Amino acid sequence: MTFEEIKNDEQQYMMHTYGRFNTALVKGKGATAWDSEGKEYIDFTSGIGVNSLGYCDEGWVKAVSTQAGTLQHISNLYYSPLQTGVSKKLCTLTGMEKVFLCNSGAEANECAIKIARKYSFDNYGKGRQKIITLVNSFHGRTVTTLAATGQDVFHNFFFPFTEGFDYVKANDVSDLKAHITNEVCAIFIELVQGEGGVMPLSEEFVKVAEEICKKNDILLMIDEVQTGISRTGTFFCYQQYGITPDVVTSAKGLGGGLPIGACISGKKTADIMTPGTHGTTFGGNPIACAAANEVLSRVAEKEFLDEVNKKGEYIREKLSSMPNVKEIRGKGMMIGIVTEKDNAKEVAGKCVDNGLLILTAKNLLRLLPPLTISYEEIDKGLSIFKKVMEA
């Protein structure tokens, strides 16, 4: 099919929920993709942080294809060594206790919200259900996770939204303390706000949040959907802050390209969810778990993490000398670029036209390259980016 045929079919048969760039990708290898017309692109997006091992990694392909030819799906009424393998790895790598496997970050966050409210109900009864999230946060697109998201732009159309969320300014300790009441059951935060503009939280703010939670028996829950699975230079970003969360959520890079999410509980919350209180048909699917087991067997190795940090520093250093770059922020290979001309969307479009896939977040550019991207691919992508920024 030609690009125009693909585009016409999309317009005719698909809901218009995405503002798409003008290309149709059909194959990829490493951090390089090709479209339906044969044009080559360097990918600095990894499917919005999903393709952690890049396109069609040999080990990943083997794990997925072998499992697809063995057993594609079973009900969660039966035990699965693939599910237990993923869960054991996650607990071993984090020191956490129990895992609920699902299909996405939004689902993992829904599970975390239910854990927080049930923990509080079990221990304190009704009336202690409020969850604090941050202004500019993003936690998903279900009616409840939209309510948890601290951005007014998302609080429209779908009324009534789920009640019980308060929003605190990121890194504002006074505002956080002012919102702590006897109705609060959890504080739920991203340590680097991804969709909110690649904004890292300060260590002071996070430490105060942890202290408040310990003092008041409030759950500290960390949304690592975008920051986790080695994206920010440690397996989970919270490990850079020296804190011990009660709940951590994960998705995106966990499956390396297949849909899988995880809600990971610590000791305090390990046994809150019981049979009948939560569930999923597709969560922990054998093929998705085979993919996740391959990802987890590699991304937490010290050598791998060292390379993630080196590549992130390398990209930042190259970006810092480029025209139209006002500010660079983020951690590891989660990078935000504020432009002098405030023209992020225009730059992103021109990058695609010139063979570079790049993201935006708020009014800045966002890079989430595959963690396995080669230096050759980095240099090729940055060369295109520089050309666009000089124009």
Specify the biggest β-sheet.
Answer: 7 strands, mixed
Number of helices: 12
Terminal Cα span: 33 Å
Give the low-confidence spans: none
What structural class do the secondary elements suggest?
Answer: alpha/beta
Averaged pLDDT, please? 98
Shape: globular
Report on this model:
The protein is of the alpha/beta class. Helix content is 37%, strand content 19%. The protein contains twelve helices and 17 strands. Strands 4-12-11-10-7-5-6 form a seven-stranded mixed β-sheet, with helices on both faces. A four-stranded mixed β-sheet has the order 1-2-3-15. A hairpin with a 2-residue loop joins strand 13 and strand 14 (334-339). Helix 4 (81-94) runs parallel beside helix 9 (286-299). The longest helix is centred in the N-terminal third of the chain and has 20 residues, at 105-124. It is globular and about 60 Å long. The model has no long low-confidence stretch (mean pLDDT 98).
Key attributes of the depicted protein:
391 residues; alpha/beta; 4-stranded mixed β-sheet; globular
List the helices and strands and how they pair.
Blueprint: H1 3-13, E1 25-29, E2 32-35, E3 40-43, H2 46-49, H3 58-68, H4 81-94, E4 98-102, H5 105-124, E5 130-134, H6 143-148, E6 165-168, H7 173-178, E7 184-189, E8 192-193, E9 199-200, H8 203-216, E10 219-223, E11 247-250, E12 261-265, H9 286-299, H10 302-320, E13 325-331, E14 334-339, H11 344-353, E15 356-357, E16 359-361, E17 364-367, H12 375-390
Parallel strand pairs: 3-15, 5-6, 5-7, 7-10, 10-11
Antiparallel strand pairs: 1-2, 2-3, 4-12, 8-9, 11-12, 13-14, 14-17, 16-17
Helix pairs in contact: 3-9, 4-9, 10-12
